[in-house]
Automatic annotation (TrEMBL):
Pfam family, one: Peptidase_S11
PANTHER family: D-ALANYL-D-ALANINE CARBOXYPEPTIDASE, TRAFFICKING PROTEIN PARTICLE COMPLEX SUBUNIT 12
Pathway(s) annotated for this protein in UniProt: Cell wall biogenesis; peptidoglycan biosynthesis
Coiled-coil blocks: none
SUPFAM superfamilies xref list: beta-lactamase/transpeptidase-like (SSF56601), Penicillin-binding protein associated domain (SSF69189)
Stored InterPro entries: Beta-lactam/transpept-like, Peniciliin-bd_prot_C_sf, Peptidase_S11, Peptidase_S11_C, Peptidase_S11_C_sf, Peptidase_S11_N
Protein name: serine-type D-Ala-D-Ala carboxypeptidase
GO biological process, alphabetically ordered: cell wall organization; peptidoglycan biosynthetic process; proteolysis; regulation of cell shape
Catalytic reaction equation(s): Preferential cleavage: (Ac)2-L-Lys-D-Ala-|-D-Ala. Also transpeptidation of peptidyl-alanyl moieties that are N-acyl substituents of D-alanine
Family: Belongs to the peptidase S11 family.
Organism: Azospirillum humicireducens
Domain called Peptidase S11 D-Ala-D-Ala carboxypeptidase A C-terminal: residue spans: 290-380
Record: residues binding substrate: 240
């Protein structure tokens, strides 16, 4: 059987069929193309950064807009606390903790140096306050109280963190503590940090608001959120800073504008000012130079694909979920969308069966392939229907 190529052109967020032609040289589409949180990489314009490691994602369409040494091991410093927060939120959602639960302060937590919430020795502190102390004040002491409360010891907590990292697909990370305190065996990559942050945003949206709190007062001490982009009026609403001598200054930040959510990770910057300015520059570039275009809504009929020996001659095809792509605004006029499918598709066909793929191309865009599925069942034709189809084929051939 040949392959049918239907060239589609996206117009104001929708697609219109322009032509149908035969193309035997195009491979049959049957396998699922792209799954999970694998991101498409696209870069519309040249940009660089003084950060040693960086990655910028559009979470709305799961697209990498920019990356630099994103798979290089780095000291994540206090950005590691995103994992501590993730496991804390997981425990709350599972009912093992509540925001009103209290946890005791050990001497180890009380003596911990670096950024502090200033917990009191042997006091019992509400989980809600500990979360604020960890996120807003970057309290190492708050992290240890949470880690000991969740796992009994910080060492056991690190084991939990590593199991969760493997579960979430973090391939270049290893945790030995809950705080990001310097240790040569405590490391992450920028890509892993972005993936972890993305999971927290999507898995626990009900708790993400903690990251936008600008200040928190505890033990008579008021401290401001260290995320500099919260104060710049640029739609950033989280997440976490970090700094160590080994890792330099880093920031994981996320913001939403006009329905698009971007996520940035930078590390290895030379100063707090460089961290603030460089992060703002990269995120603004992502919002300015790129746009996300919705091509089809999930369940919307894209086209009719011919059927062989079925009770009906065609089957409507669709995408299971909303399909959006992110590309450079300057590349948008040259975008082309083609539907490729084996032709005709043999019955019986079940609703949800993969029957082809959409191929999306544009100048400066690396291309994207998305599977399309049958929108309804098509039973196999009865004996008389099959005989009629065979006779029709003998007389007219494969006239699609």
């Amino acid at each position: 059987m040949n392959a049918v190529v239907v060239r589609l052109c996206a117009v104001f967020g929708r697609s219109v069929a322009l032509s149908v032609g035969m193309a035997a040289g195009i491979a049959m589409a049957g396998a699922t193309i792209g799954a999970g949180m694998t991101a498409v990489s696209v870069q519309a314009a040249t940009i660089d950064t003084i950060a040693k490691q960086a990655i910028l994602l559009d979470l709305t369409s799961n697209t990498v807009l920019f990356e630099k040494n994103a798979d290089e091991r780095m000291a994540p410093s206090s950005m590691s606390k995103i994992m501590t927060a993730y496991l804390t939120f997981e425990a709350i959602k599972a009912g093992r903790l509540t925001l009103d639960s209290t946890l005791p302060v050990s001497e180890r937590a009380w003596r911990m140096q670096g950024s502090k919430m200033f917990v009191e020795l042997h006091n019992n502190i509400k989980v809600d306050d500990l979360i604020k102390g960890m996120i807003v004040q970057s309290g190492n002491d708050a992290c240890i109280v949470l880690a000991e409360g969740l796992a009994g010891s910080e060492g056991s907590f690190a084991e939990q963190a590593n199991r969760k990292a493997r579960e979430l697909g973090l391939k270049g990370s290893n945790f030995v503590n809950s705080t990001g305190w310097p240790d040569p065996n405590h490391y992450m990559t920028a890509r892993d940090m972005a993936l972890l942050a993305e999971h927290l945003i999507k898995d626990y949206p009900e708790y993400y608001h903690y990251y936008s709190i600008r200040e928190f007062k505890y033990h008579g001490i008021n401290q401001g959120n260290r995320n500099p982009l919260l104060y710049r009026g640029m739609d950033v609403d989280g997440m976490k800073t970090g700094h160590t001598e080994a890792g330099g200054y880093g920031l994981t930040a996320s913001g939403e504008r006009e329905g698009r959510r971007l996520l940035l990770v930078v590390n290895g910057l030379p100063s707090m000012q460089a961290r603030a300015d460089e992060s703002a520059r990269l995120i603004e570039w992502g919002f300015r130079e790129f746009a996300t275009y919705t091509l089809y809504k999930g369940g919307e009929t894209i086209e009719q694909v011919p059927v062989w020996l079925g009770e009906q001659e065609t089957v409507p095809v669709t995408v299971p979920q909303n399909l959006s792509v992110t590309m450079g605004r300057a590349d948008r006029p040259g975008m082309k969308v083609s539907l490729v499918s084996s032709a005709p598709v043999a019955a019986p066909i079940k609703k949800g069966d993969t029957v082809g793929k959409l191929v999306i191309t544009a100048p400066g865009f690396p291309g994207k392939e998305v599977p399309v599925v049958a929108a309804q069942d098509v039973p196999k034709a009865g004996i008389f229907g099959r005989a009629f189809a065979a006779a029709k084929y003998l007389v007219f051939g494969n006239s699609l």
